[in-house]
Specification:
Rossmann fold, eight-stranded mixed sheet
Length: about 250
């Protein structure tokens, strides 16, 4: 089995190994998933200027660092010791706390919880904890209909406890927040062209031409946030992003 480890880390920063539990920057083979997560952080970044934000389950720390470009203050909360130590060393402008998302409760203006609610056993309790910290929560999760094999209840990701359909995810959020808007993430630009090419038989063409490795060695690292788009969600979305608000 191939092992992937972050490349070109600054001096003193321990690189993280890609395990499938979290996505990582600085791993060329992981760039699709990294950009798919990064575009949501960038969208939120534009909406939290001047605010205090808690990035729950902050992982490697790149997302908290993106939010810190506009937010007044960002706290990254991460339980995993390796990810926590890496983030502290890699992103010194962000404060990181080693704690659990179920219990961490520092007051803030907004909470972000991206691509993680599918990992928790009691999502309702987690959302209630977020409500005690902040009036706004940004929560994202993959769409089981586009992640799992057709007809399956779950993908093969061993870290996922529950993967959601659109209405399941909306109902979960609405059970805990007064106002919920759900956006969907979709392919755009290069990825949309690639998606259409696959429907036309691209996956049978590149092996016959002997260009599979050369093409994807170029294509995957070339992806960026512009190759994804956020708009109102439907069942075809790759991921869902819920913007959850409590009444004043």
């Amino acid at each position: 089995m191939t092992t992937y480890v972050q490349e070109n880390q600054p001096d003193g920063v321990p690189p993280l190994e890609l395990t499938g539990e979290r996505t990582l920057p600085d791993v060329p083979e992981e760039n699709y998933w990294y950009q798919r997560h990064l575009v949501v952080y960038e969208w939120i970044r534009a909406r939290v200027g001047g605010l205090k934000v808690i990035d729950m389950a902050s992982g490697e720390g790149y997302g908290a660092n993106v939010l810190a470009r506009t937010a007044r203050e960002v706290v990254g909360v991460e339980a995993n010791p390796d990810a926590f130590l890496h983030a502290v060393a890699r992103y010194p402008k962000v404060r990181f706390e080693r704690s659990l998302v179920e219990t961490y409760g520092e007051p803030a203006d907004a909470v972000t919880f991206l691509q993680t609610i599918e990992h928790v056993r009691d999502p309702g309790a987690v959302l209630e904890n977020f409500k005690r910290s902040a009036p706004v929560a940004y929560v994202s999760t993959p769409n089981v209909l586009t992640l799992a094999p057709e007809g399956a209840e779950k993908s093969g990701n061993p870290w996922h406890v529950k993967e959601y359909r659109l209405e399941e995810f909306r109902e979960l959020c609405e059970a805990h927040y007064d106002h919920v808007e759900v956006l969907g993430l979709y392919h755009a630009r290069k990825l949309l062209i690639h998606q259409r090419a696959i429907r036309l038989g691209w996956d049978s063409v590149h092996p016959r031409l002997g260009i599979t490795k050369r093409f994807y060695d170029w294509f995957i690292p070339a992806m960026d946030v512009r190759d994804f788009a956020l708009r109102p969600a439907d069942d075809r979305a790759l991921d869902f992003l819920a913007v959850c608000r409590t009444s004043p």
